[in-house]
Amino acid sequence: MTDTLTDTIADKLAEAGLVLPKAAAPVAAYVPTVEAGGLLHVSGQLPFIDGKLVTGRLGENVSVEDGYAAAQACGLMLLAQVKAAVGSLDRVARVVKLGAFVSSTADFTDQPKVANGVSELMVKAFGDAGTHARSAVGVPVLPLGAAVEVDAVFALRPL
Fold first, then answer.
1. Residues 6 or more apart whose Cβ sits within 8 Å of residue 139
2. What count of Cα atoms within 13 Å lies in the side-chain half-sphere of residue 39?
């Protein structure tokens, strides 16, 4: 879709100093988004800050604060994918579900605090419609050594 639709959500984020990155291309055999039954499923997105992938493991060499920022960066990339797929973040009626995967050591248990980076971004962007169901799980490794990966499901307004 084109960027000709209004996008008050993206404007609101920009006013808060949050800029949507260019939607990343897939790194393997999948597509970034699939729309089905009024829902937009967005593949897992990795955290890029200032164009650099955030790598490492929580509990080892990444702090909770840096993990939170990485989760927020994943959220911005999720929103970039939504905008690329449907033309405007204003098409989002509701954030339905987020799945946060946190590369972490076996004794690290603050995955929910890390995942709050993306959760709080969605509420900042969409208000009450940004509240969502969520999983926050620890994993031993993520693609490309990323510290965090987040996937999502969004309910869309009809055209």
1. 101, 102, 103, 104
2. 10
Q: How far is CA 144 from the centre of its chain?
A: 17
Instruction: Name the pTM for this structure.
Output: 0.94
Is a pLDDT exceeding 90 seen at residue 5?
A: no
Token pair belonging to 100: 């946060």
CA dihedral 145, 147, 151, 157 (to 10 degrees): -130
CA angle 51–15–5, rounded 5-degree value = 85
What's the pLDDT at 2? 41
Decide: residue 8, CB within 10 A, 0-12 exposed, 13-18 middle, 19+ buried: exposed
pLDDT tens profile 94-128: 999 999 999 999 999 999 999 999 999 999 999 99
Partners of 94 in the β-ladder = 155
DSSP 3-state percent helix, strand, coil across the chain (nearest 5): 35, 30, 35
| Contact (Cβ atoms closer than 8 angstroms) between residue 102 and residue 57 | no
